[in-house]
Design goal:
two-stranded antiparallel ribbon, about 400 residues, mainly alpha, 2 strands
């Protein structure tokens, strides 16, 4: 449609020009003594138009001729830039293919070709970023070859290129790479320093959290490792099953590192509710608490969710976990202040009556009755436990308890 309008406008101009020229009787007289030249107005206008066109073409030709050196320089820069980008691509291809020597040579060749162009700020910014990336690829290749001298040299040059405030936003990747290199060199302190230099947003990224977890494990910082696992699971960077397994192991490690009951209580308070509810964590914390001389009532309070889980869903706990639970509660009863309160008396009696074929519950109920000096009932429960159980260790302990009760009665 636009072409149709242009064509109509062209016909209109042509028609107007024809009408103007056909009926124009004007003339122009040029005096150049002793000469006189008379020309028509139409011819004068035509000559002026032709002269303007020729002058315009001449000026454009002169401008094009004068710009030839600048065009040649721009072509050389573009050609060099294409070679630099091609070398960068070759370096990355060799790097991912495991050809580290070729990768480093390609990056160094690109660095030799790369020259920061003069002029606009955008060109200088692009050149600085490109130089930093080339140095990083060369440093990565040198690190794979275990050439730390060359790696550190290229990384230092890359850091200098990134000092330009316009390209400072690319430093996050360099900090992460430096942290991984330090971790590979078993230098956990330097790795943590590089990770601490990350901005708050970058520090929560998956790759940063994974590196922080490895550094924390290398430094033996269990609390930091546990917090990192929580963040990984929260950001869905780790499967829930793997996260739960790691959280359980780290929580137990944190609890077992305590040297007195106060430290155990402090470690327990740092755990989340989901971690405290883990069977192994609660059992381990209660056992360690009692081993260090902690209050038995507090240990039973930590074990209460595990007991309720066993009472409601007996198959949820393994036989080993059930045995540990009973043994831990028994250890609490063995303390001077370990006499069970009314609530625990009701819980143990209800569980024992609900499953009279469970040797562990019969044994625990017998221990409770022995603590309360109910010798006859304790003797009956221990005898049932000995008759039912197939666990040699439990059978031995129940028989010893039975013999002790018989001697007391006699």
């Amino acid at each position: 449609m636009r072409a149709v309008f242009w064509l109509m406008a062209l016909f209109g101009v042509a028609a107007a020009s024809a009408l103007f020229a056909a009926g124009n009787p004007g003339t122009i007289t040029l005096y150049w003594p002793p000469y006189r030249v008379d020309v028509s107005l139409n011819l004068a206008l035509l000559v002026l138009a032709a002269g303007f066109v020729l002058l315009h073409l001449a000026l454009r030709g002169f401008s094009a001729f004068a710009s030839i050196p600048a065009q040649a320089r721009r072509w050389r820069l573009q050609h060099r830039e294409r070679l630099v980008h091609a070398s960068l691509v070759d370096s990355l291809v060799h790097l991912v293919a495991g050809r580290f020597v070729r990768s480093r040579k390609a990056a160094e060749h690109a660095l030799a070709l790369q020259v920061a162009p003069d002029g606009e700020d955008d060109a200088v910014r692009t050149s600085a970023r490109l130089q930093a990336m080339l140095h990083l690829v060369a440093a990565e290749s040198a690190h794979a070859l275990q050439d730390r001298t060359v790696r550190d040299s290229h990384f230092q040059l890359a850091s200098e290129a990134l000092r330009n405030p316009d390209v400072a936003g690319t430093q996050e990747g360099f900090f992460l790479r430096a942290a991984r290199w330090a971790l590979d060199d078993h230098d956990a302190g330097s790795a943590m320093q590089w990770l601490d230099r990350l901005p708050q947003g970058a520090a929560r990224r998956t790759v940063a959290l994974r590196l922080r977890f490895r550094v924390a494990r290398m430094q033996g910082k269990t609390a930091l490792a546990l917090e990192t696992v929580r963040q990984l699971v929260k950001h869905r960077a780790m499967a829930k099953t793997n996260g739960a397994s790691l959280s359980r192991a780290l929580a137990l490690e944190l609890v077992f590192a305590a040297q007195d009951p106060a430290q155990v209580a402090q470690a327990w308070s740092t755990l989340e509710a989901s971690e405290r509810a883990m069977t192994d964590v609660a059992l381990g914390a209660a056992r360690h608490w009692l081993a260090l001389g902690g209050d038995a009532a507090q240990s039973r309070l930590w074990l209460l969710p595990v007991w309720d889980r066993m009472a409601q869903q007996p198959k949820e706990l393994t036989q080993a976990q059930r045995r540990q639970l009973v043994r831990t509660i028994e250890s609490g009863f063995a303390q001077q202040d370990g006499t069970p309160d009314a609530a625990w008396l009701a819980r143990i009696e209800a569980a024992q009556m609900a499953d009279p074929r469970d040797a562990l519950l019969q044994y625990l109920a017998g221990v409770m009755c022995a603590r309360l000096s109910l010798w006859g009932k304790a003797q009956h429960l221990f005898r049932q436990s000995v008759a039912i159980t197939t666990d040699l260790e439990l059978k031995r302990d129940a028989q010893r308890a039975l013999d002790a009760v018989v001697q007391r009665r006699d």
